[in-house]
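Notes from the 1:1 (GR / supervisor)

We went over the backlog. Supervisor wanted to see one worked example end to end before approving the batch request, so GR pasted a single chain during the call. The sequence is below; no edits were made to it. Supervisor asked that the structure be written out right there so they could see what the output format looks like.
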Amino acid sequence: MSFDPADRAQLPFLDALEGLAHVFLEEALALPDAAFLPLPDAAANTQGRWEVCLLKLDLYADDFPQALLQDNRVRCPQTWAAIAGLAGLTVAGFMRLAPGSEIKPHRDRREDDVIRVHVGLQLPEHERSYWPEGTARLMDIRQLHAARNPSAQDRLTLCCDFRLGVPVPEGAIPPWSPELSPEPPRSDLSTLAKA
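Structure output shown during the call:
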């Protein structure tokens, strides 16, 4: 079997994540600032503040204190209960980009059979025009990507990495950032055929 981003049967976690986006938002908004840590590359890739509240780490485990995971799971019991049993989940957490902050264009490393999913929980207006809050977007972090938050409130997403068991070819996922690509973003996965 080869990877097809339009085949939701290959991505069974999408419906679960989108169906509980309101719960994820409620718990993310209730988190204390102490639950969020700067991302390891934040200083090099960010103007402003870009942070993560981690719930699960397989990859990148050496980059963060492990004790924090248990505390965050207690702070977000419904989110943790919803995602803990999702097949293939390797990394999960809330990402927060502060008002006026920007993540500069960059690429990240990942294994060939891992895909990132962001569920938009609280997005700036310019992103809501092509990414409705509560919906999931696939992301190939090997591609150039960026984000900005010109709004007066935090930009919040639930970020999850999933091991699919099949390689995800470069270019199979549409570019993340519209401003980095000449083609319009294809972001609302609810329009894709459901199996």
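Supervisor's comment: Residues 8-169 form a domain with the Jelly Rolls fold (CATH 2.60.120.330).
Batch request approved.
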